[in-house]
Amino acid sequence: MESLIGLLIGAPLLGAAVLLVGGRRLDRVGHLLATLLAAVSFVLAVVLFLDLLGEESEARTLHQHLFTWVPVADFQADVAFRLDPLSMTFVLLITSVGTLIHLYSIGYMEHDERRRRFFAYLNLFLGAMLLLVLADNYLLLYVGWEGVGLASFLLIGFWQHKPSAATAAKKAFIVNRVGDVGLSIAILLMFTTFGTFAFEPVLENASGASEATLTGIGLMLLLAACGKSAQVPLQSWLGDAMEGPTPVSALIHAATMVTAGVYLITRSGAVFDAAPDAQTVVVVVGAVTLLFGAIVGCAKDDIKKALAGSTMSQIGYMMLAAGLGPIGYVFAIMHLVTHGFFKAGLFLGAGSVMHGMNDEVDMRRYGGLRKHMPITFATFGLAYLAIIGFPYLSGFFSKDEIIYAGFSKGGTEGWILGGVMLLGAALTAYYMTRIMLLTFFGEKRWQPDASGHEPHPHESPLTMTIPMIILAFGSVGAGFFFDLNENFVHWLEPVTGLEHGDSPVAHGTVGIAATAVMVLGVAGAWWQYGRRPVPAVAPQGRFLTRAARRDLLQDDFNHAAFVRPGNYLTRGLVYLDHKLVDGVVNGTAAAFGGASGRLRRVQNGFARSYAVSMFGGAVLLVAATLLMRAV
Amino acid sequence: MSFPLLTATALTPAIGAIVTAAVPSARRTAAKWIALAFSLATVGFAAAIVLRFDTDAGADRYQLTESRSWIEDFGVRYELGVDGIGVAMIALTAVLIPFLIGAGWNDADPKEDEDEAPASRRWRPTQGFFALILAVEAMVVLSFAATDIFLFYIFFEAMLIPMYFLIGGFGDRAGEQGEEGQARQRSYAAVKFLLYNLVGGLVMLAALIGLYVATADQLEVGTFSLQAILEARGSGELDLATSTERWLFLGFFVAFAIKAPLWPVHTWLPNAMGESTAPVAVLITAVVDKVGTFAMLRFCLGLFPEASEWATPVVITLALVSIIYGALLALGQRDMKRLIAYASISHFGFIVLGIFVMTSQGQGGATLYMINHGIATAALMLVAGFLISRRGSRLISDYGGVQKTAPVLAGTFLIGGLGTLSLPGTGPFISEFLVLVGTFSRYEVAGIIACAGIVLAALYVLVLYQRTMTGPVKPGLEKLPDLRVRELAVVAPLIALLIFLGVYPQPLTDIVNPAVEHTLSDVDQTDPAPHLEEVEAGQ
Do B505 and A70 count as a contact with CB atoms less than 8 A apart? Predict the structure, then answer.
């Protein structure tokens, strides 16, 4: 049974390699092959899942050791996999949503001449993401971690002829690289502390290490998670990433890759449990991001960017829950899965709308689309109800549990966290209702585009609507099923542990409060966008609105703090390299040249100057060595 | 006495150089095929070296040894022998050369207008180009194999001569500066290259003589033999005074630091790599420069362990400066070949760092880094060269939207770039991470500073890719042809190798690991133990 794990990862990787190497010959079958291999992965995942279910709940772990990867003295890295309920959950989410989105893309990318390449990248993503969640050590996880980053880079910049897409792709990769420094240092710290970076020995011995070290490892892992999961302060790439084709936004930038940070923290639970300071920082990052994303989501007129703000905010919930420790891990993952369903559904719905509207993304140019796209409206609507936490749909269960876990933290902190999350829930209801009203309700506001084509909104083909319908079922029923007999809790508990905090508020009260703030949010949005016609051009707005439209000035800040000083530094150094490092020695040479007129006649000018400049460099080296030793 | 495999490996390209140079001027194509055939034969010998090399822990340190007397009066002998590091470096050199010949297939063809009067030409550029490449290969192989320090010194210096002609004599298609301006730039670069390295060599020569005098003083006869000196030092017969050892170390180190090149003696590299053709640029950075870092491992650490330890803080500082400085300078370049040159300076910083942190992971990683950097830079630089040969410009701003017209070229360029930024899954990731681990386990702060290189590398590679390959197609590039079969045949195996070494580097680590253990025992160092074990041991 274990040997299926490698196959599960290998199938989509093979697909990517075949499609990329095969070239144009495969243009006509590439998308089918890729979709088939994604489906193969899904089937293998189901087989493995059934096998795990057959075991006792404590014994649900499979290992596969493929080969020794890097052996250098004590540094031993293996290509080995670990399948336990936590990774199984991810594998099922990734392969199911992944296969659906492959299917959807067949229709969505039908007219793109580079469709084969698109599917190759999708397969590459799937393989890398599976590697990420199945690796049994942090270094192999790193390979998957950067692999999904690469796939994300390729797919955000898929329409490379658009400078905005190319810039967004580069930005995503580089911001993520900042996070990768965190992951690198975390692994370095693990190696110097434990002599290994495999999950089992590190996590089992975590309590033996000093708290300072564990805090360091925890914070570095958090930095990595912030990059991948677009959490403050490394959030700035996600909005721009919406330049990618919409199926990509659904799969990578909503349902799976961006949740990898939550996986990393949950997986490393033993480290965080012994480093309360690091946990606090995780909670703060989650809380800040959940508000940050929600505020941005309220202000965007671009449907995908509004949804991206929402994604950021929802992952903030998960991050916060993961920072609470064993009170929260299970619910972080539960929300991650339900979010995977409804957010993928929302993005696919948005893609369907764009497909029928000549790729228009400005919601102020939509309006009244429910009549033209009934299936899209219905599925989007169900996912909408799920995300705002409508009673007994998926989001209701998972989000309430997180809010309750926040209160369970106890004391003032508990009240603050609970309050922040309730505020977030109200904002969620507000921005989602806004999207719903602007897109599907009211009067039509679309106009002919630049080339004079009037959009003719129409329902999308079956390959697109079927995945949307299936995801809508998930959005509706997953939460209820997970909650039934505490299915999900029992499934994950052996890996993540579970504790019950001491909440000052009863579970039922939290549910009622969450529902009440949801109604408030919906009503607020209706007040602004439902009861009167929406202007096709956005009003100027107040300061907060304007700032939120600019993503709360994140890019302005990054430019002022890093990009511009960096540019000055680089330009200054280029100048100095030429004038100083190369030139001081040249100057010395010139001085020598003036003194020795006779030599000048004998020797070629720059030959002499470089001999001297070389000598100057050598003297500098020797002098530096002697000086630094003397000090 | 068994078959002298090392000599054969060096002799094959040497003979190839002579044969190629002798081909009549009208038979240009024949000369190319002859050069390729000899380089492939060298690959065969290198493969035999790899297969014959015994990687068992108990095996001899230097294998495939050869020893003949040469200049008796000065104790100079023709002594060859390789440890695992030498084997790996010879294999890298042998493998890369055929690709360079293939990539430079048309780089040295005479211009069309010159072709009309071939009778008046005595200089046969095509033959010369390939003969010089093979000559460099022969000397590089010998410097990797020489265990007599004087012998090493001879080839270390002699390879400057063919390199000088390769840099000064052959360049890219003339761009905006015109033929004459380009030629002036080229000879400037060639002279700069020559003088930097020559002065480094002179400093080393002085130290070499000093070492000979010291051995003649303390042992019965003076010797240049590495093995003899190592043995004498091990047994206590040879005990250099601290100050002597330090001065000798500095003499050797300066020469190798210039060759490597390390900040602040790096400025010859961007000129040399920028002005020469892409295959020659690869020859410089991927092959010739590696002799510098290789020699640090073999000679600086082996001969002067105490001085090496004494200089460690400074060398580590210079290496860190190289990493960051090279990367920042790469970011500021407008010329793509100079950009790759500065990126190489950054990477050489990693290699030197790995060597001098004195841990298994650091030195193992540095050795792997030499191999992987060679392959990744070759892939990136050669594709850049293909691009430049199409447009006749090295300026990044002259390009844009190439992926639209030449998707395979853009794709291979990206993969070469991803190797250069050490993407996990490619070989350079493993070597870079090993260097980081090796550094961090002894010098935490240095390890963290070096991590900044991770971000900067992504910046300069992706900015280069974005500016040249994406966006709207620049005017003049609408008809840019995609990679030709010859070009693809050069790049595809390099990419395959890049990925293979990222996924399964064990064949390489098996060869390198024992040699690293030996080097570490030379300097009398052991890896730091994990803190947790220390804590437990203390209880």
Answer: yes
Residues A292 and A411 both lie in one domain: yes
* Same-domain status, A452 and A590: no
Domain assignment present for A553: no
Instruction: Choose among B250, B311, B430: nearest Cβ to A70.
Output: B430
Residue of B nearest to A613 (CA): B196
Identify the residue among A21, A25, A70, A626 best suited for mutation to test binding to B, counting B beta carbons within 10 A and taking the highest: A70
Same-domain check for residues A292 and A263:
no
Q: How far apart are CA A197 and CA A199, in angstroms?
A: 6
Residue B394: phi, psi to the nearest 5?
-100, -5
Domain of residue B25, residue span? 5-110+122-323+361-378+496-531
Per the domain annotation, does A551 fall within a domain?
no
Predicted-complex ipTM score: 0.92
Q: Report d(CA A116, CA A245) in Å as an integer.
A: 14
Answer whether residue B430 is part of any domain.
no
**Is residue B454 included in any domain, yes or no?**
no
Same domain as A255, residue A118: yes
Interface of A with B in 602-631 (CB under 8 A): 604, 606-607, 610-611, 614-615, 617-618, 620-622, 624-625, 628-629
| Residue among A161, A569, A618 minimizing CB distance to B203 | A618
Q: How many domains does chain A have?
A: 3
- Give me A227's structure tokens: 């990059």
State the smallest CA–CA distance between residue A210 and chain B in angstroms. 9
Total count of domains within chain B: 1
B166: nearest Cα among B92, B98, B104: B104
- Written as six digits, the tokens of B375 are 């392959």
Return averaged pLDDT per consecutive 10 residues of chain B, 539 residues in all: 87 95 87 95 95 84 88 85 94 96 87 50 76 95 94 92 90 68 84 88 90 86 87 85 90 93 90 92 95 94 91 95 94 93 96 94 95 96 93 89 92 96 94 95 93 92 94 89 93 96 94 90 85 62
Residue B127 lies in a domain: yes
Closest CA to A621 of B346, B80, B322, B105: B322
Contact B386, B483 (CB under 8 A): yes
Answer yes or no: do A573 and B401 touch at CB < 8 A.
no
State the Cα–Cα distance between residues A505 and A495, nearest whole angstrom.
Answer: 28
Helices (H), B116-218: 125-145, 149-158, 160-169, 178-218
- Contact criterion met (CB < 8 Å) for B401 and A75: no
CA of B40 to nearest chain A CA: how many angstroms apart? Answer: 26
How many CB pairs (< 8 A) connect A and B?
214
Same domain, A322 and A256: no
- What is the nearest CA distance from B69 to chain A, expressed in angstroms? 34
- Are A9 and A32 contained in the same domain? yes
A293 is in which domain, residue-wise?
A: 279-536
Put simply, the answer to whether A72 touches B452 (Cβ < 8 Å) is no
My answer on whether A347 and A250 are in the same domain is no
* pTM of the predicted model as reported, rounded to 2 decimal places: 0.92
Domain membership of residue A546 (yes or no) is: no
Q: Does any CB of chain B come closer than 8 Å to the CB of residue A137?
A: no
Whether B40 is in a domain gets the answer: yes
Task: For residue A170, list chain B residues with Cβ-Cβ distance below 8 A.
Answer: 462-463, 465-466
If you ran DSSP here, which 8-state letter would residue A63 be given? E
A403 shares its domain with A522 = yes
Percentage of the residues of chain A whose pLDDT score is greater than 90: 63
